[in-house]
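Q: Make up one entry.
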Amino acid sequence: MRVLLMLAACLSLVVQLEGSALLSGEERSIRKCLNNYGGLNAANAERLDRYTQWSESYEEVPCFTQCYLREMFDFYHEEAGFDAIRIKKHFGEAVYEACSERLKLGDLRQSSCEHAYAGFHCIVSLENDPFILIENMQNATRAAKSAMKECLQQVDQVEWNRISDYARFPVTEPIPCFTRCFISRLELFDERTHRWRVPAMRRALGVPALGAHVAGCAQRRGRNPCATMYQQFTCFVLAV
């Protein structure tokens, strides 16, 4: 979603700079893609803002998505379609595979503009999916990802979207006891001795970093065992 969420704000800036020759790469791309639809104006700012609502079959500015993806990111080419390597690098292998049917060329009923819009609609709709976020964790092993997914399935579905909050490392765990669940499944903490299996944690999750100062992490305490484990694990993750 972040790729298109910034369009309206950026367009507002471009309108202010319309008389200036000093345009950034994105501003230049937006200007080019709107050239056939009235250029940079308030009406088009509103139309771009509506992209965040993602109509299933109606694109606010015809062919804008195809143009923007090509000009700004080189994600799409009219004859070849989506660039698989670039899409996987930017959004992750899991998103690409989940949307693969929408990203493939072959539907003769679709124009290249419709294909670009439909494919990118799928990508954006999955970018913040909690299971996709887990799947895209680069340093986690397959076993670690599976443990996290299993633990997530044990909580109420209304809490699933809170998985993205972990990236901000809040003081209170976004999903209570989620960390303790996957740590226990991976056997990274000895409940009998209350000691962390740091080498195993580094192999499974890629943390803490080699040489990081983690001596005080095990001393952290929360209001209950789940909160304590979350606080200690967060310390390992952030240690330098």
